[in-house]
Design a protein that fits this description.
alpha+beta; Alpha-D-Glucose-1,6-Bisphosphate, Chain A, domain 4; seven-stranded antiparallel β-sheet; 28% helix
């Protein structure tokens, strides 16, 4: 099922690229960037916070619009949209969701701009602690997407690491001490 979802998601990427009428001769860029955060909780408690429903528990402004299923869910195959800070619509497909194993994966398409694969791996790190490694691989679909790809650098990763670690640990602390 996971392979089918990943292939389906990448088919959407290719279709968007083809429909965009890609005729430019500029090279299309791709960049991969990872960061690791230290979290105060168990893998099974932390992993759901990376799902599309519970990300709102720690990410201000996170408001996905669910398509399949319409009521939203934390399971493989969920499709939803968001709007970027620049006002661009993004379509998300949850390709991997294994909370007990600490694995979450997405494919995100900004039509005619970029396609991004996000892989999250949460592993134990001592008693009541874990670490999450988040890896983004962003690909330009048209030359205009190269600018977004270029932003996925070490500075971006450090900012994300600080923001995510702080926000998720605050949400975990609130759960323990409401």
């Amino acid at each position: 099922m996971r392979i089918y979802l990943a292939l389906s998601a990448w088919s959407v990427v290719l279709l968007h690229s083809a429909l965009a009428g890609e005729t430019a001769t500029a090279a299309l860029e791709q960049q991969t960037q990872s960061f690791t955060i230290e979290l105060n909780g168990l893998v099974a408690d932390v992993t759901p916070l990376f799902g599309p429903v519970h990300e709102a528990d720690w990410a201000p402004g996170w408001s996905p619009r669910f398509i399949h299923p319409a009521q939203g869910a934390q399971e493989e195959g969920v499709v939803f949209t968001t709007t970027s800070g620049q006002g661009k619509d993004r379509t998300w497909v949850l390709t991997v969701y294994e909370a007990r194993e600490g694995r979450v994966g997405y494919v995100v398409v900004t039509p005619g701009v970029t396609a991004t694969e996000i892989q999250i791996r949460v592993v134990p790190d001592g008693e009541q602690h874990c670490k999450a490694t988040i890896t983004y691989r962003r690909s330009a679909l048209r030359p205009e997407g190269n600018q977004e790809v270029a932003q996925l650098d070490a500075h971006w990763a450090k900012d994300q690491q600080i923001q995510w670690e702080t926000a998720i640990n605050a949400a975990l602390a609130k759960e323990r001490h409401p």
